Amino acid sequence: MQILKQLKMFRNMKKSQTLLLGSLFIFIGILSFSWNYLEKIREALFSDMKISMMDAPKTVDYNNNDDITPEVINNVNVESNYTIDYSSYLGVLEIPNIGLKRGFYGLDSRYNNIKYNVTLVEGSSLPDVYQGNLILMAHSGDSYISFFAYLYKLNVGDDCFVTYNGNSYHYVIVNIYEVEKNGIVSIRRNKEKNTLTLITCTKDNDYSQTVYIAELVE
Fold first, then answer.
1. Which parts of 64-207 are beta strand (E)?
2. DSSP structure string for 104-117
3. DSSP annotation of 183
4. What are the extents of the domains in the chain?
5. 48, 100, 153, 160, 218 from 77: Cα distances, Å
6. What CATH number is given for 60-216 in this structure?
7. Can you tell me the distance from the alpha carbon of 204 to that of 199, in angstroms, rounded to the nearest whole number?
8. Whole-prediction pTM value?
9. Interval 87-98: pLDDT, tens
């Protein structure tokens, strides 16, 4: 009789464990589905709010130039009717040929980060500095933070504009070249000119970055 009771208790315990495991699997399934769904909503929301998007580098070494230290990165482009208040930015980068208009923050801002925005690289000079070099980088790829997605469409002679401190600065691209993605980016520029340098990962190449050098139009 005692054995039958024990067997019955054992069966009940097994049933409880089976029900518990089943409930756990169902909960994990619902959680996984909900997470994926929320991720899709988040992605759509951010995509709606952006204008243009791309990938960039780490420590920078200038051949015959200055030295700076950025960070490595990834690209996309979406148009939207979303209105952006550019007054909150330190400056605004515009490249008409690819429909890019994106603000950037100062070095002391928490939003000056490749995870959020076009990033001002430490060691950069602002546009009003004589013979300075403004260096900006951003992701390339397919994410909502890939602001340099269409830089690969640019050619020598294309225009870039930077609005800073109430003034507009007009640059023209004079050189485009690739460097190996090894943590070092060589920036080749004429140090007697005011320049704008844009850095991102090379399209369809996981092993290199592309550097765009533009000079200020006098």
1. 67-68, 91-95, 100-104, 119-120, 133-137, 159-164, 167-180, 185-186, 195-201
2. E--TT-TT-STTTS
3. S
4. 1-49, 60-216
5. 11, 9, 12, 17, 31
6. 2.40.260.10
7. 15
8. 0.64
9. 889 999 999 999
